[in-house]
Amino acid sequence: MITRGSLWLPLAILLLLAALSFWIERSVQLTEISSEASQTDPEGIMENFEALRTDPAGKPHYRLSAKRLKHYSGSKRTELESPRFVQLDAEAGDVSAVSRQATVSPDGQEVDLAGDVVVERAARPGQSAMTLRTQQLLVFPERDLLRAPGAVEILDDALTMRAGAMEYDAGQRVIKLTGRVHARYVSRQD
Fold it and tell me: What ranges do the domains of the chain cover?
């Protein structure tokens, strides 16, 4: 004969297991929601950000500044609002780049400038100032390399050029233009 107490024990164990599985499911869902929020919400925000990179001897190499910097811990992505990148070179002249926004790779080896990008090379004796305009510019600071995957326009005192894409090696001071390249040279009469 089955007693009443023996019926309640399996039922109590089933209720305990049901409550435990409900608790585990809720805690997993809360972890997923918080991890999604951490990927969409920045971990840190800095206003008027500025960083200066120097070589081992302490000589300034480049400066990166922005109106606002947002860092996301989940993706290790960094976003910059109104960034300004300046490559400092006393011998070859400074090169600066500004845009509406930028993204820095997690390892800091690539800066993707986007939206109304303007690059300016300072004038030097015997060399006029040069301006480059494009919509996207990839900056590789450690490699002294600038790459525009889309249309570019380059202007200086005597030259106007347009091209489908561009790569600028600052170390070798070489500009490679690809795509449909149009150039107009105006000789200056001294």
Answer: 1-41, 44-185
